[in-house]
Design goal:
Elements (H helix, E strand, L loop, with lengths): L2 E6 L10 H20 L3 E8 L4 H10 L3 H18 L6 E4 L3 H16 L3 E11 L4 E2 L5 E4 L8 E2 L16 E5 L7 E11 L5 H9 L6 H12 L7 E2 L1 E2 L8 E2 L2 E2 L7 E2 L1 H19 L4 H8 L8 E8 L3 H14 L9 E5 L2 E3 L14 H7 L2 H10 L7 E3 L1 H31 L11 H22 L3 H22 L1 H7 L1 H22 L4 H10 L11 H4 L21 H10 L5
Parallel strand pairs: 1-2, 1-15, 2-3, 15-16, 17-18
Antiparallel strand pairs: 4-5, 4-9, 6-7, 6-8, 9-10, 11-14, 12-13
Helix pairs in contact: 2-3, 4-7, 5-6, 6-9, 7-8, 7-9, 12-14, 12-16, 13-14, 14-16, 15-16, 16-17
The chain binds one RNA strand through helix 2, helix 6, strand 10, helix 7 and helix 9.
Length: 571
Amino acid sequence: MARILITSALPYINGIKHLGNLVGSQLPADAYARFMRQTGHEVMFICATDEHGTPAELAAAKTGEAVADYCARMHGVQAELARGFRLSFDHYGRSSSARNHTLTQHLAGKLADNGLIEEVSEKQVYSLADGRFLPDRYIEGTCPNCGYDRARGDQCENCTKQLDPTELLNPRSAISGSTDLEVRETKHLYLKQSAMRDRLGEWIDRQTDWPILTTSIAKKWLYDGDGLRDRGITRDLDWGVPVKRGDKDWPGMEGKVFYVWFDAPIEYIGATAEWADAHGLGDDAWQRWWRTDMGADDVRYVQFMGKDNVPFHTLSFPATIMGSGEPWKLVDYVKSFNYLNYDGGQFSTSQGRGIFMDQALDILPSDYWRWWLLSHAPENSDSEFTWDNFQASVNKDLADVLGNFVSRVTKFCRSKFGEVVPDGGEYDEAEAGVIAQITTRLKAYEDCMTAIELRKATTELRAIWVIGNEYLQAAQPWAIYKTDPAKAAAIVRFALNLIPLYAVLSQPFIPDAADTMLAAMNSDNRNWPTDLKVALSALPAGHEFSVPEVLFTKISDETRAEMEARFAGQN
RNA sequence: GGGCCUGUAGCUCAACUGGUUAGAGCAGAGCGCUCAUAACGCUUUGGUUGGGGGUUCGAGUCCCUCCGGGCCUACCA
C-alpha cells in the first residue's frame, strides 16, 4: 500500500468561497483522498487558509477588526463550511501559524545561502492617506490610451492595454480614493527563478502524464518572452511572515514581510507540522511526508488547484524547494481545473452572482452539491452551473437511480419478509451475471479514480447503481414471490446486499448518504471490496436492518424557479 | 498583440498513439412492469463531429484557413 500526500490549493481568507472555488480544488481532492483511504493507502490530506496579503488587511479594516482577529474568525467560518461539505482534511491549517513562519524564514535563508536571493531597489507608489504602499491594481486613474476613468494601475479593463501605474492620469488610491500619492524607493528580495529555468524546464518535461492544462501553463511561463522571470518575494506590509534569514535578522529588510505567494505553498508543509503538533507527535511524524531523507521517498504527492494557481505550484514553489538544496518532497502530480461558470457568466462576489458555500448548505445537504459538482467538474474545459441541469442530475441520478433502488428493495423486503435479510432459495446465473457486470464496471471505476478522472468516475459509479435496477426488473421478486417465495427470498437477499456495496463505492462522492445506507443496513464494514462474491454475501440471512428515510428528496420545479431568481444577482 | 484550451445529437459529455456502420446519460417517442421517491426496465427518433481546403488506403482525431466560446499574459491571491 502506498503513501499519498494530497494538498488542496489554500482558500484565501478574504470571504466565503463559491462553488467554483470548491470544485476547483478542495472537493476533488477530498474525493480522491477518500478513495485512497478506502482502498487501503495511507493518506495525508492537507489544506489551510491563506491569510496574508493586502486583501486580508483591507477586509479586516472594513469590519473594524484587527487583521489577526479577522483571520482567526474567518478561519473558523471556512473550517466550519469545510466540515459542512464533509471535506476530510487530516488538518486544516493556517498560513499564519508559527510553523509556517519558521519554515518560510528557514527556506528563504537557505535560498539566500545558495545565492538565489537578490536585493532589488525599486520605486513604488505610496499612499499617504492610507499609510501603505499600493499594489499596482490598487491604484486607479484615467487610462492614457483610451480615456477610461477607472483604469487600474496594472491594466485598463476597458481597452485591455497593460499599464504602469505611473502612466495613469489623475491617479488615486483604489482603497480610499485619495490622490495624495507619491513614489517612494523601497528595497525587496527577489527569488532568482531565472537561474533555475533549465532545471525547472527539465523537470516539467519529464511530467508527461500531467494534464495538458498544467504543463502548458508551466511552459508558457518558462519560455514566454525572455523566459521565467525573477519574482519579488517580499512586501511592505504589517501582516505576514516577517522577513528573516533563518532565525537571524535580515539587514535592510526590517518591517517587511514575505509575499503571500512565497509563504502560502510552504504552508502545505507547515500545516502538516501543525497536524503533528495537534496530535502530540514529534517532528519525525510530519517529516516522513516531506523529507526524502526522513522517509518521504515512497510518498506520492498530488496537488489539486484551479488553473490560476498553476504557475505558483509548477514553478515558484518547486523553485523554492529545489533551490533550498535540502531534500524536500517535490510534487508528483499536479491536477488542475478550469473554471465553473454560473448560468452564462462568471461567479461574482461583488454582484452577488452565483452560489456560495454557506448558501449552498442552507439550501440542500452537501451530498447533492458534491455529486453535481464532481460529476460536472471542469476537467477539460470550463463548465457551467444551471439550476435546470442541477435539478435534472440530482433528481435522476441520486433520487431515482440510487435512492429509489434502496427504497424499493428495503420496502419490498419489509412487506414480505420483515426487516430481516430473508433465508432460503439459491442464487443462479442471474446473480452471477450481476457480479460479472459489476466486476467490469468496478475496475473501470477504480481506474478512473486512480487517474483522477472524476467525471468519468461518476459515470461508472452511476452505471453500477443502474445494474441493481436492471437486476430487480429482470428477477421480478414481486412476481416470483407468488409461486416460489424461497426464490424471491434469495433475490431479495442478493439485492439487499447490493446496498452496503453501493454505500462503500459511493462514499468518495456522497459520504452522508453512504453512512445512512450503511446504518440502515446495520453494517459497519467500510472496506473496499476485493472479491465481489464475498462482498455481496456480507449480510447473511437473519441479519436485521431498517428501512431508511428517503435518501434524496427531489428538487421541485417550483424550488428550481425560486432559486434561479434568488441567485440571479443584481443587474 | 502573443500564447494556450475549446467548438461532437435539443442539453451535458465519451471516442488510447488517425482504423470497422461516431457512443452514453438527460430530454422526446413507443412498449413493459407495478416492489419503489408517478420510481424502474426494454426499444427507439436525433449528428455531412462550427465552415472551407489539404495530407492519407483511411480524419472527430494531423496540417492550413475562416468563424464562435474561454483562459492566461507575471504587483489580487
